[in-house]
Amino acid sequence: MHRTALAIRHVAFEDLGLLEPLLAARGYEVSYLEAGVEPMTSDVVVEPDVLVVLGGPIGVYETVAYPFLVAEIEAIAARLRAGRPTLGICLGAQLIARALGAEVAATGRQEIGYAPLTLTDDGRVSALAPLDGIPVLHWHGDAFAIPAGARRLAETPGFPNQAFDIGDAVLGLQFHIEADHTRIERWLIGHAHELATAGIDRARIRADAAAVGPALAERARATLGAWLDRVSPGTET
User: Fold this and answer.
1) Is 138 a catalytic residue?
2) Would the N or C end of the chain have less CB density within 10 A of its end CB?
3) What is the pLDDT of residue 198?
4) How do residues 184-197 score in pLDDT, each as one tens digit?
5) 14, 72, 111, 178: which one is catalytic?
6) Which secondary-structure segment (H or E) carries 21?
7) pLDDT greater than 90 at residue 144
8) Across residues 208-229, what is the average pLDDT?
9) Looking at 90, 111, 140, 181, which residue is catalytic?
């Protein structure tokens, strides 16, 4: 069976990462839609079998500065109404939350680097189960409210809403388990200004990526693979 997966990408280095080979192994033809560059229509976004909305260094509320966000939120909302499998990561999760009518706002603080994640009771019986208590990559300052009808799956001390799901089809992650630790330098370069402004130690992120990245990658593949197998029965590998 021919299956398609579309990733909405906001900056080049925040790509599908570890998720792309998992999709390919399950027979998906993967393509990218470049936000702000290529047309963002409901038809294009609703059609693929799986949609992944990736991260980026802007806020969902910055629609005056980035007008394409209006069309993106509308297109995501159309897909959600259609009940189509949708995964959002960081900005992507915030866009899903906004499309579902939940508040997304700047917090005035940042969570950047590798730090443990705590799952809720619902999270421990979700696709996120392999991630409980282990360090994941955080890179955000905005926060979403949990949409109506969604389950809250994970938290950290500074950001109590780290993940949500709606049935099997919709999963929103504030953190980055798709990021390949062997390519963390791309993130350090791409976010150079943000890191310098926040006084974040780039050497610490680099060292943590080397130390915890391999184990995290295994857990990330298990998590992302479990979600894919739930939304696309018959593609298990």
Assistant:
1) no
2) N
3) 92
4) 999 999 999 999 99
5) 178
6) helix 19-25
7) yes
8) 98
9) 90
Q: Is the pTM of this model over 0.85?
A: yes
Instruction: Say what angle helices 91-99 and 68-81 make with each other, to 10 degrees.
Output: 70
- Residue 235 binned pLDDT confidence (cut-offs 50, 70, 90): low
Give the residue-averaged pLDDT of 193-218: 97
Q: How many CB atoms lie within 10 A of CB 86?
A: 26
Following CA atoms 206, 209, 210, 211 in sequence, which dihedral angle do they give, to the nearest 10 degrees?
120
178 is catalytic: yes
CATH assignment, 3-231 = 3.40.50.880
Is 90 assigned a catalytic role? yes
Query: Active-site residue among 138, 176, 181, 191?
Result: 176
Annotate 151-174 with three-state secondary structure.
Answer: EEEEECCCCCCCEEEECCCEEEEC
> 137 CB contacts (<8 Å, ≥6 apart)?
113, 114, 175, 176, 177, 179, 181, 209, 216
| CA nearest neighbour of 145 among 100, 78, 88 | 100
> Given phi > 0 = left and psi -120 to 50 = alpha, else beta, which region is 149?
left
